[in-house]
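Researcher: Please translate sequence to structure tokens.
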Amino acid sequence: MRGIKGPGPGCNFQGALDTLTRIEGVVPIVHSTAGCVIQHYHALRAGGSLGAFLEGFEVPSSNVWEKQIIFGGASRLREQMKNAVKVFSGDLYVVLPGCESEMVGDDAAAMTAELAGQGAPVICYEGAGFKGDAYSGYAGVTEAIFAQLPGVAAIPAKGGERSVNILGLVPGQDPYWQGNLAELGRIFHRLGVRVNTFFGSGQGLESWKRAYRADLTIVVSRWGIRAAKLLEDRYGVPSLELNGAFLGEQETGSALRKAAALLGEERELEPFLQAEKSRFVYALRQIRDYYYAHFPRNYGIAGDEGAILRYGKFLGGVLGFSLKAAIITDAPAGEENPRPAAELEGLTEKVYCSKDRGEIAEIIVDTRPQLILAGAPEKALARRLGIPLLRVSSPAGRMMLNRSNLGYTGALTVLEELWELFVPADPGPYPIR
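Model: Translation complete:
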């Protein structure tokens, strides 16, 4: 039996911690060994994707040792929680026990309730690493926040302003997450609604409080379904699933029309759609000569299912690229035969599910695409095969603060990135055919 070589996403704990550090004003309190936080920090630092509020050595942790593992670490956690609340000024504190503390039976939830009873805005997510991967950590901790937040914070009454929630875009696992959330905020704002994206600049705890009174939740991947269902079942917030979100003029326009119909805002939409279509067509005209002379005609991609759907529909439907191999890296852990989205069946004949970098490399070698869309670990493989690599998956090893691969702006980014990969510095005269 062969082992997994270089698994892509981290564990459930890392996904939860990564998610919490992207929310302004939220302070995670880790109850685990020191290595859990530090390994998480170094992994993100190497991939070019760090949080902005608390990160690495700043994160409060009980740093349990052999004594606490043998005799229990409840007293150490209680001490750490009280100190964290005194030292760190946060809007919300989230206790996050790791594998060791859960295996020895430390009741982190009970101690969290004890501190909450004293007036502290603190909740708990029991997210040990062995419960899944980083994607499931995002899904679990977002659901936990929505479930427990009303018990420790005042939720505002529904006002006159309409709003939508965006769930399922996993920060950290999506290298473009900041630009993608900004693009989602931009385009849905044109429907006349406020947009709760929950993560990044300007999206602190207040956006989470507003979520319970939203008019609609947009779910862009399977990882947002659990939280969206909780909001719908308990608070009556309807949801719209747009698996993979959308990329390019056609897919984005279709998605916006669906949302506008549910919100009753169709009249405000068409002028915006026409303006964005004109902008996109203008960009296509600028790259058409380079497209015919230099761009590839097929590609392979390894990444989360949402990104594969976005690129598959855009590169195939708009640029005419054929997809030789689609490798899904975020299939739910524990499923022996995970089933890809039905929409993928029409994009490629070969769909694989693997988190194994060795297996991913074998698939790419076998299919030999003209372009690889994957992560930084595939750099050496791409160099050896002489195939250009566009790093779109985590870890990307790129610092992306505003780039997007979603919506209208994302389509322009894709065109720019393809141009940079395939057009030489001196392209020379246009070839006469």
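Researcher: Any highlights?
Model: Residues 139 and 223 are 5 Å apart (CA to CA).
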